[in-house]
Amino acid sequence: MSDLIDIETKIKKNIPLAPLTTFNIGGSAELFVEVGSKDELVDAINLAQNKDLGITILGGGSNVLVADTGIKGLVIKINNKTLVLKGDRIEVGAGSKLIDTARLANNNGYTGLEWASGIPGSAGGAIRGNAGAHGYYIADVIETIECFDKIKNIFKILSKKDCEFSYKDSYIKQNKSLVIWSAYLKLTRGNLVEIRNKVDSYIKIRESSQPRLASAGCVFKNLSFDDIQATSDKLAKYIIKNNPPKNGKIGAGWLIDLIGLKGKRVGDVKVSLEHGNFIVNTGHGKASDVIDLIKFIKKRMYDQFGIELEEEIQYLGF
Length: 318
Ligand SMILES: Cc1cc2nc3c(=O)[nH]c(=O)nc-3n(C[C@H](O)[C@H](O)[C@H](O)COP(=O)(O)OP(=O)(O)OC[C@H]3O[C@@H](n4cnc5c(N)ncnc54)[C@H](O)[C@@H]3O)c2cc1C
Known about the structure:
Strand order of the largest sheet: 6-7-13-11-12
Oligomer: single chain
Largest sheet: 5 strands, antiparallel
CATH architecture of the largest domain: 2-Layer Sandwich
Distance between the termini: 32 Å
Radius of gyration: 20 Å
Bound molecules: flavin-adenine dinucleotide
């Protein structure tokens, strides 16, 4: 471990966080540091712990809502940009972009990450929340993960099994003491032309169905069809007729559209007209507007169908 003084000189005060998020919303970090080595990560965490400061980890900021009042304590942006292809494995630093990771696999003829083309954010954020699209998830290609345990003050390797991945969830997400530092992804040899065609078609789908305005991606998790059926037989029958479940899931965006909330606006944020599960920032959106809109959508959905929507986006600083 290096001298704690070193990390102290790297810590900045009152850093605006909105530009570090895809939503472009929220206040400042009381204290902010970017860590590019294991030593820096450990030093930053130890320093915060010694001073009793809260610790918030930031990746690419593409799935978060930062409070208007900002984040108290120390915000640590993970900057481990390792990205190396080793045979059919990729060693990826948590701070590498998911898009770059997918590109490395795709361009070298390895299949398993085509779905990730076009998804912003870091590999670390993607692993924590088990990011996915088109029926594929990052969990499918995880071999091992290296994490720092803030409580035990040690790095440890987790196997894919240890990570307990499930839909948009993982052991790491449930265990707040863990910070992802790096991972090994295991890919499969594929056909370059087929990989390129898959990437092109996924990007086309994304471009035609998602808004271009600032957002944090899908606000709510999609719903299990079985849960919907258990709640409302009438809605389940309507779904089977009009929008049969894919992989057992029903899009939250489709349901939000169904209850007529596309375009619903609070202040400078609104439900996207292109995709019901995206809230977009049309200019000077505030986190409080997003919260009010989320509350409104959840209440309407519950009143109309008895369905409880659960947020996929993560709240920071609340
Ligand atoms: C236009 C758009 C499209 C999107 N499409 C998709 C999609 O198709 N599928 C999908 O799954 N998601 C999608 N997303 C959401 C988002 O891009 C992903 O969930 C992404 O993987 C989040 O990574 P991040 O680095 O941005 O995480 P952040 O937003 O920075 O953080 C998310 C959470 O992870 C924590 N975190 C971040 N890094 C670490 C780490 N190293 N260790 C521990 N905790 C960490 C943060 O504290 C926070 O709680 C989309 C977002 C946008 C804006």
